[in-house]
Each structure stands twice: as structure tokens, then as C-alpha cells.
Amino acid sequence: MLVPHKVCSQMSTLLLVFSLPMFAVSSQERNVGSHTNSNIDAHKVSSRLLFEITLHGFLLWVSLGLLMPLGVLVIRMSKGEESGRKLKIYFRAHAILQMLSVLLATGGAIMSIKNFSNSFNNHHQRIGLVLYGMIWLQALAGFLRPLRRSKGRFPWFFGHWALGTTVSLLGVINIYSGLLAYSEKTSRSIRLWVILFTVEVSFFSFFYLLQDKLEYIQKQGVVLGNEPSRPIDQTASHNVKEES
Description:
This protein is mainly alpha-helical. The chain has helices spanning about 5-35, 45-75, 85-115, 125-145, 155-185, 190-220, 235-244. Helix 1 packs parallel to helix 5, helix 2 (about 45-75) runs antiparallel to helix 3 and helix 3 (about 85-115) packs antiparallel against helix 4. Residues about 1-15 and about 30-45 have low confidence and may be disordered. It is a multi-pass membrane protein. One of its GO terms (cellular component) is membrane. Its cofactor is heme b. This is Cytochrome b561 domain-containing protein.
């Protein structure tokens, strides 16, 4: 039996995301081990720079690791809603979450350009630069969305979905690479932060996949805790009445 392409794509994405924590932790251990015999003072940073690095990471985590995934989940909850008040609530919540995400990511970008040495010689800085451009492109696409059932709706929807999925995936990857860069810069352990972020990503991924099956589960009576009652055999009921 062939596995649908959609399931293969989702599973490969999840495997890629969940392999990143092990890579980040193992890379940190290798880096700590390689610097054991070197001058540790070279890795110390000033308290001001440490604060700026931490704030930059916090802004990008809230933007790409929290608000943007929440916005994706909210708009997916509107699936099946053609019109009405619920659809407007879902859409406005999605728009607010995504705009807040864009503003926080922009603040983090300004901080990195202003305060950090950006030679773009590592994956974290290169992915970050691509992300900044893609985030604003996605926001612009959101403002230029065509009306439903119009000719340009399908290509716009596909492009908006593809770009949003790419931004979300790259955002998760760059948070892990940012944690690794933080560890290399400060020689501090990131194991706890990797574990906490992995738990968060796992929850979002589970809820994202659950939404595809939630309607089916509800129809099976699993969510409500009872099974749908069996239809009464009308023929048998009619015969009983005649006999009586």
C-alpha cells in the first residue's frame, strides 16, 4: 500500500526537525571538548554583549518559535469555515499573531545588524538573512490576498502556504543553530534550552497533525466519549407492531 505524498512530506519534515536537537547537543559537546585546552578567556563576552545576544535570541524565539506557529495553527482551525463570525475571529487572530511575529523579528534583525559582527560566514547568519526577507515577503503577500473563488486565489494560496511552511521550518532550524552559536560564543550549556524548545516543537507538530484528523475523530465518537447509536431496524420494529 503506497503512503500518500502528503504524509511522506510531513514525516520527513518532522524527522528533520527532531534530528536537530541531537545535532545541536552533540555539536556543543564537541565544541566544549575542543576548547578545553585552549584559552577560555577568549570566549568570554562582556555583560552588555551577553544581554544583547540573549535579547536577540529571545525576540527571535517569540517571533519564529511561538507566535508564528500559533498563527499557523489558528488559521488551520478555520478549515471548513466558509463565512461568518468564527471565520473572522480566526482570520483576525492569525493576522495579529503574524504581524507581531514580523515586528519582533524585525527588532531582532535590527539588533543583529547594529550590535553584532555579521560576516555571514556561518549557517545561522545566512539563514537569518534569508528569513528576514522571506518574513516580509510573506507579510506583503498577506496584504495582497485575492478574494475567495477569484482566479488568482489558488496560486496565491499555494504560494502563501509554501512560503509560510518554509519560513516556519527555517525558523525552527535557525533557533537551534542560534542556540549552538550562543554556546560557542559564551561557552555555556544549552542542553536545557534545547530540551524545552524540542518539547514545544513536539507539541506544535502534534497539534498540527491532529487537526487533519480531528474531524474524523469527532465523527467516530472518540472525542465525545460515546459511540453513535445504531439505527433501529425499522422492518423488525414494524413486524413487532403488527404482531402485537
